[in-house]
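This follows on from our talk about sequence and fold. I would like you to pick a protein and set down its sequence and fold. Go ahead and set the record down below:
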Amino acid sequence: MRILLLEDDYNLAESIKEILEIEHYDVDIANSADEVYEKTFNNTYDLYIFDINIPDENGIEVLKKLRFAEDKTPVIYISALVDIDTIAKAFDAGAEDYIKKPFDVEELLIRIKAKQKNNKIITYKDITVNTEEEMVKKDNMLIKMGKVQYDILTTLLKNKGKIVLKSELLKYLENPNENALRVLINKLKNKLEIDIKSIRSKGYIIE
């Protein structure tokens, strides 16, 4: 699970990152809104953990802009702001959860694991992916595929309607090169009979 953490307190951010990585989560840190926009443009994430009170831009406004750009990544807020009005605005913007500071990191881990369980099934037309068991089915028939193909497929499906950059997909290949990626994408298209579009010089998309 890849997580983007927005937190302007550098020490707290590093502490959270360290604890989450012990639990085998892949964590990137953003200390400002601009860093969030930069990282979400170049990478895809499974979960956002956002503070609200950051210097350059309110964390709620950050989420609004991401949602406007059709980014549907789940969000957990962690914030010292505990007034009902702020909490209501956070959920109205599209947050799935809200944790009040100071908080126990164990509580954060429980919430993250709950999100994983709720999002373990991905469906697209006649294709079903169980991310907990790493199982792919088409018309209820089990489809065998290698780990790299599976990772590329799930990344594209999690970002349905959004271009996934080549650089993001190439990370799954042991010896990254665009020709090998093209071959893998074509095999997926033929195996699952789905339309994966190539966006010239950018990446791939499932609409």
In short: The CA atoms of residues 115 and 140 lie 25 Å apart. The mean pLDDT is 89.
